[in-house]
């Protein structure tokens, strides 16, 4: 059997060796509770302060604007619920897009049950949010707009700066950005993105540990807590802090930022080689997402006349681990809401295959993957009563 090839880095990454090394002392020796005033606690507290500073430095924010959480889902839930309730006196209207992660979608659905009204903006065929529709939807009652930096399924990068400007020019709303897929992969400068009031990130997307992430909340932005209890995280998020994870998250982000330029170039070359081969060698295939404004490591294809699940499992047997849609929705047989939102018919949406490249990916891996796809797609299409090889699309 061929070696195992992991091409699902958008679902999660492994933890880098240097990150593990940085974390270990905080499990074995510096295990104090940061709220304790003895030396064990104070060392842990100092490590957390250093981590906050390192993360703020990479994102060009202030350390006080970084709050640690248990990951992307909590950050997104907190942003939606906490920003909405802190601003509820001004209005009850929220705007988001139709391609957000379930961590945003389901938090908004919950608020809709509690009397908020939610507008879900359309996206175009490439997954870019409709800016005209956004402008038209904003009112004096709009208190929160939440749009993702980059989509986890199709990789499209949204025009965040432009969206922020439109939000601020047309409403009193605060602007939250789910940047879980973008932080580390692209250079985000929050000093320049001055209209962004809050932003979510998660360490397991950038070679840090799972179960830790953060929410940037710009100074002066009011947000209610999600967790009530002790006075951790400046009384905004109770529970004893995950010091080990926080140290790991900061180390991972610092390393990613230092290597970004070089790594981005390498990954883009691999992605473009992959896209060129697939679009050139297969019939009845399309690339989902924006042709240029997309994450460096993302390629999402739809192969007509096949089921993504079948493709995924047969590719897995050949040693290639990728995804159909997003890892969160693979348990469901419904086609991805993102692929439907960009206008794909149900059948095409069902045949989607997401490949996300990472630090260990080589050109040989990509070539082996495309060669394997050739064999698997041919087999599956030969099983399909709908496929006619003489009718190329
Ligand atoms: C865009 C986006 N938001 C939020 C999340 C949730 O992050 P976490 O797994 O850290 O809860 C993910 C994870 O896939 C994501 O891709």
Short descriptors:
Aspartate Aminotransferase, domain 2; binds pyridoxal-5'-phosphate; Aspartate Aminotransferase, domain 1; 393 residues; globular; 14% strand; alpha/beta
Q: How would you summarize this macromolecular structure in one to three sentences?
A:
The protein is an alpha/beta fold and 393 residues long. Helices cover 41% and strands 14% of the residues.
Task: Set down the secondary structure blueprint.
Blueprint: E1 5-6, H1 17-23, H2 25-28, H3 39-59, E2 66-69, H4 72-86, E3 93-97, H5 102-113, E4 117-121, H6 131-137, E5 142-148, H7 160-170, E6 174-178, E7 198-202, E8 213-217, H8 232-235, H9 243-281, E9 285-288, E10 298-303, H10 308-317, E11 320-321, H11 337-341, H12 346-350, E12 352-356, H13 363-383
Parallel strand pairs: 1-11, 3-4, 3-5, 5-6, 6-7
Antiparallel strand pairs: 2-8, 7-8, 9-10, 10-12
Helix pairs in contact: 1-9, 3-9, 4-5, 9-13, 10-13
The chain binds pyridoxal-5'-phosphate.
Pyridoxal-5'-phosphate binds next to helix 4.
Distance between the termini: 33 Å
- CATH architecture term of the largest domain: 3-Layer(aba) Sandwich
Do you know the CATH topology of the largest domain? Aspartate Aminotransferase, domain 2
- Regarding quaternary structure, how should these chains be classified? single chain
Number of domains: 2
Enumerate the strands of the largest sheet in spatial order, edge to edge or round the barrel.
Answer: 2-8-7-6-5-3-4
* Gyration radius from CA atoms, angstroms: 22 Å
Q: What molecules are bound to this protein?
A: pyridoxal-5'-phosphate
Shape annotation: globular
**pLDDT under 50 segments (min length 5)?**
326-330
Name the beta content range.
5-15%
Largest sheet: 7 strands, mixed
Number of strands: 12
- Helical/strand content category: alpha/beta
| CATH superfamily label of the largest domain | Type I PLP-dependent aspartate aminotransferase-like (Major domain)
Helix content: 40-55%
Secondary-structure element pattern, one letter each: EHHHEHEHEHEHEEEHHEEHEHHEH
Our count of helices gives: 13
- Average pLDDT metric: 95
């Amino acid at each position: 059997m061929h070696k195992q090839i992991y091409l699902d880095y958008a679902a999660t990454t492994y933890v880098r060796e240097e990150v593990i090394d940085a974390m270990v002392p905080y499990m074995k020796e510096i295990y104090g509770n940061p709220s304790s005033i003895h030396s064990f606690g104070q060392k842990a507290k100092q490590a957390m302060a250093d981590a906050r500073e390192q993360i703020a430095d990479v994102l060009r924010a202030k350390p006080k604007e970084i709050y640690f959480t248990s990951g992307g889902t909590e950050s997104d839930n907190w942003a939606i619920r906490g920003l909405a309730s802190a601003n509820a006196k001004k209005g009850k209207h929220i705007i988001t897009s139709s391609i957000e992660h379930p961590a945003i979608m389901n938090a908004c659905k919950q608020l809709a049950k509690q009397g908020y009204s939610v507008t879900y903006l359309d996206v175009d065929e490439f997954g870019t949010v409709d800016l005209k529709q956004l402008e038209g939807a904003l009112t004096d009652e709009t208190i929160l707009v939440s749009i993702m930096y980059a989509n986890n399924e199709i990789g499209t990068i949204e025009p965040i700066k432009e969206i922020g400007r439109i939000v601020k020019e047309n409403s009193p709303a605060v602007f939250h950005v789910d940047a879980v897929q973008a932080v580390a992969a692209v250079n985000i400068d929050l000093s320049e993105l001055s209209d962004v009031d809050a932003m979510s990130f998660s360490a397991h997307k950038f070679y840090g540990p799972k179960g830790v992430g953060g929410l940037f909340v710009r100074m002066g932005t009011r947000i209610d807590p999600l967790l009530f209890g002790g006075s951790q995280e400046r009384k905004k998020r109770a529970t004893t802090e995950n010091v080990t994870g926080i140290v790991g998250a900061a180390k991972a982000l610092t390393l990613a930022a230092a290597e970004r330029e070089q790594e981005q170039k390498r990954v883009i070359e691999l992605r473009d080689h992959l896209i060129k081969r697939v679009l050139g060698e297969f019939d009845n295939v399309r690339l989902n997402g924006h042709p240029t404004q997309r994450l460096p490591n993302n390629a999402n294809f739809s192969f007509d006349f096949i089921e993504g699940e079948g493709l995924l499992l047969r590719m897995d047997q050949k040693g290639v681990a990728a995804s159909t849609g997003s890892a969160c929705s693979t348990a469901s047989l419904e086609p991805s809401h993102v692929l439907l939102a960009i206008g794909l018919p149900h059948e095409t949406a069902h045949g989607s295959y997401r490949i996300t490249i990472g630090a260990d990916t080589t050109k040989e891996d990509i070539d082996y993957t495309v060669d394997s796809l050739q064999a698997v797609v041919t087999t599956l299409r030969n099983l399909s009563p709908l496929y006619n090889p003489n009718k190329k699309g």
